[in-house]
Amino acid sequence: MRRLRDEAAAQRATEKEALKERRRAHPAEATLNRAALLKSWPSSKFGETSLGPIRGGHAEFVNAGAHKGWTATRLVAGAATLGTPAAVAGRKNKGAAVINVTFANGVAQTYNVTPDNTNLRAANQYVNAFSALAAQLEAEAGQQ
Q1: Exposure on the CB side of residue 29, measured as CA atoms within 13 A
Q2: Which of 25, 78, 120, 135 has its CA 20 to 30 A from that of 61?
């Protein structure tokens, strides 16, 4: 029983080291996974996600004027209370932003992105990393 546990632990350690080495060679995968932590975007392990392979796929970030803006009602409320609590919560999400991801197996997903700086930056980072990783994996496959 102990021998089986030790063998399983050694196997996990080997797999963990192989994944670490691969991510050193594919830094876009680490960036993609870091951005995916913020939202329910699929993360990657050895170029595979839960929805399909990255190689041959593509992603695009559509930012259709997503931003936080003041509305007339909230401006009036902020002025009426001399800019205290209403002013703090006075900005409202406006516009739309989405990530369209297509995986190599044909699965396509669209993810909504809330228009705040952190999420917009993460979405842009995710799409750039996805595209970079897909291109790198495609180039590696072409060399072989």
Answers
A1: 20
A2: 25
